[in-house]
Amino acid sequence: MKGRLGTLTALYVTQYLGVGFITVGLTAILRDGGTSLDTLALLQIVGLIWPIKFLWAPILDRYGSRHRGHYRSWLLVLQTALVLALLALLPFASPADALGPIIAICAAYVFFSATQDIAVDAVAVRMLAGSARGTGNGIQVAASYLGNLLGGGACVLVYDQFGWVPAIGLLAAMTAVGLLVVWRFREPPRTDRVERVGAAYRALLSVFGQPGCRWWTFGVVPLVYVGAGMAYALVTPALVDAGWSLGRIGVVTGVVTSAPAIVAGLVAGLGIGRFGRGGVLVVGGVALTVSTLLLLPLMNGRAPLGGTVAALCCFMVAYTIANVVLYTVNMDYSRPDTGGTDFTVLSSFGLVCSFVAASIGLAAADRVGYPAVAVAAIVLVAAGVVLGLSHQRRFPHRPGPAVGPTAEQPTEQPAVDGVKAVA
């Protein structure tokens, strides 16, 4: 199990390295070079590829090499593509003067990264026993922060000291570590592959037919994500209104708060194994409530450095804890034969909720002010936690074994909420 978790850690971290660089590091570099905010907004739009990745997830579940490993064959191609896409950035030492090629390469990278995520999630669904899924998803969430910290923080520091080529070279070298991991990875033989791509696409809807899945996906997830997302969307404009410089905002929100979030993801994952999904969800909900209350001075225009940084760190810790629980239950509902599709469509809905939450929060704040929106966010999160705890009591998770490295024939076992699954 340690080897499996190590493989997943390397793959999750390396997929977020370039994403962190594009969304944080490259944005800062381009802005420093005089790029307009409108153009930077266009760069951020490439991130919308992630929420729609469910459109091609069934293809990865249906097609794959039996000789090289079903999902491993995809990962070999995609991890290589990530490295090559980053290397393609090397000639553009003045990125502000080559925005067209830069944005095109970034869009390609995000597409490869999103597709790689489908394959890694599918591997996690198949390899992690139910008791280890909390740890696995804690690693996934923590890895996203670590990737952003390295890609958006460390590479920018290298750029500032040594220039464009060393920064991109470091980014590509770190991403290449994931390729080495894939080469060494031996995927368990797959005997439950869907035989027709149409059947794989039907999984986009059939996943919701499992007992309690609609309750979780369309009840708990929107309440928690919209509530937390509304509160987080207020942070940056509130800091600007309080007089913070863009540089300080970038360092605090992009770097300083990442470290406690990484720890929180790992601890939350371990906590799920010990206290259960419902117990950790309650902890996350209470922490979100308290941390949002701690942000109220900021929402009222008072933002002393120490207190504000502490409040933001607490909020990111709380949001991370809740996020790990949501991802873990999504994985519980992901069936081994269509794991890439199931987990992707469930997680993509959460991403859509986050995008919607940001728009709702900012629009509402313009009318009723930051504090009122923060209070509304607390109410939504509390409702989501209550609904989620009720869901977990009615549909308790029944742990099942992972697909072992020596598995040859599929065996039926009780899966999530009494639904038959193939392990």
Descriptive account of the structure:
By secondary structure, the chain is mostly helical. It is built from 16 helices and two strands. The chain has a two-stranded antiparallel ribbon with strand order 1-2. Helix 4 runs antiparallel to helix 7. It is globular. The two termini are 16 Å apart.
Summarize the helices and strands and which ones pair or pack.
Layout: H1 2-32, H2 37-45, H3 57-62, H4 70-87, H5 99-127, H6 133-162, H7 164-184, H8 197-206, H9 213-233, H10 235-241, H11 246-256, H12 258-294, H13 296-299, H14 305-332, H15 339-368, H16 370-394, E1 412-414, E2 420-422
Antiparallel strand pairs: 1-2
Poorly predicted runs are: 405-423
Radius of gyration: 21 Å
> Outline, from the CA principal axes?
globular
pLDDT averaged residue by residue: 86
**Helical/strand content category:** mainly alpha
How far the N terminus sits from the C terminus, by CA atoms, comes to: 16 Å
Q: Portion of residues in helices?
A: over 70%
DSSP helical segment count: 16
Strand order of the largest sheet: 1-2
How many beta-strand segments? 2
Largest sheet: 2 strands, antiparallel
* N-to-C order of helices and strands: HHHHHHHHHHHHHHHHEE
Strand content: under 5%
